[in-house]
Amino acid sequence: MKIYVTKTFLPSIEEYKAQLERIWESRWITNRGILVKELEQKLRDYLGVKNILLVNNGTIALQIAIKSLELKGEIITTPFSYVATVSSIVWENCKPVFVDIEEEYLSIDENKIEEKITKSTCAILATHVYGNPCNVKIIEKIAKQYNLKVIYDAAHCFGVKYEGSSILNWGDVSTLSFHATKLFHTGEGGAIVSKEDELANKIFYHHNFGHKGEEDFWGLGINGKMSELNAAMGLALLPYMDRILSERKRVFESYNKNLRDLPLKKLKIREGTEWNFSYYPVLFDSEDSLLKVKKNLNENDIFPRRYFYPSLNKLPYLNNCRLPIAEDISKRILCLPLSAELGDSEVEFICNLIYDALC
Ligand SMILES: *Cc1c(COP(=O)(O)O)cnc(C)c1O
Are residues 135 and 188 in the same domain? Predict the structure, then answer.
């Protein structure tokens, strides 16, 4: 049995069918049917946010966020994230300006943001990488001082709380991904969380072709709608979330125990965070050690992933700049398999293979 970096959690097929039957009854497959609306309401409550709109993936969520805030010019961002964070900026005809990451938390280094601000800077787009919150307070202060918008790529943040409330409540907009590899998923899917109602309306129009009723148009739009088929998965999965989170915590602790004696650096979670155990990254002393471990795991049908490699300043469509910390860390970091269904004996097996490769 192959073990991948994650294993998509599925509800029982009966539970999924029960949701599908509602679609067969209504004969309404997309265009904001009852399932999408119900999932939106349930997520609003579960996550503790004011405005949430379901969309068809986490990348369109970022693109609509940039469009809705009318961003033009330079957007300060992080090199240590999934490619979609930065490709969305370029896709929306803005220019990504990288700020290096902080060594312990691995999110954008808030102390290096100000030196990159120019007359053309319009926003900060940062990722709460591995669900570990950015320094949102300092970023908010900087944004206020320089009149910048803030978008958080919160693709890894399902269920994360910071100082008692949802991390999604920070920034002008936060975006989520419900891709099959994420903690909570709808196969493909995503969501946009926003604080101000006026902005939420704009986001809504943008995600539905700009339609205002059948024959009128509010303005420009795109098709970002989630289908009922995807919402059905979300509705069937949502009741499992507490169990999924506690199982992931078990796996996380099992790794901690089994890797105790190895010289591997772990992610430091920001104080005040109720984390979601979304990833298990380990930092090796060198890329060489990482490659040795990866090889040994792969030979035993275990497939960790190099999240996130390469550092995004190396993308072929960007002018490369030097970012010593992100470049160094992205070469040495590996995410180990983590899912609700990973057994303690499997964790032990993986850790023994790591041990064998290193010692
Ligand atoms: C998964 C992911 C995305 C993209 O989400 P999709 O739903 O696959 O489009 C964006 N940003 C980050 C950080 C991600 O991990």
Answer: yes
**Can you tell me which atom of ligand 1 is nearest the CA of 60?**
9
Q: Are residues 58 and 199 in the same domain?
A: yes
Contact of 166 with 49, CB cutoff 8 Å: yes
Choosing from 63, 177, 181, 186 the residue with most ligand 1 atoms within 8 A of its CB, the one to mutate for a pocket test is: 177
pLDDT tens for the 359 residues of the chain, in order = 899 999 999 999 999 999 999 999 999 999 999 999 999 999 999 999 999 999 999 999 999 999 999 999 999 999 999 999 999 999 999 999 999 999 999 999 999 999 999 999 999 999 999 999 999 999 999 999 999 999 999 999 999 999 999 999 999 999 999 999 999 999 999 999 999 999 999 999 999 999 999 999 999 999 999 999 999 999 999 999 999 999 999 999 999 999 999 989 999 999 999 999 999 999 999 999 999 999 999 999 999 999 999 999 999 999 889 999 999 999 999 999 999 999 999 999 999 999 999 98
Domain count, the chain: 2
353 and 313 in one domain? yes
Q: How many residues does the chain have?
A: 359
Pocket test for ligand 1, best of 54, 82, 182 (most atoms within 8 A of CB): 82
Domain of 69: which CATH number?
3.40.640.10
Question: CB of 179 closer than 6 A to ligand 1?
Answer: yes
Instruction: Give the domain range for residue 276.
Output: 240-358
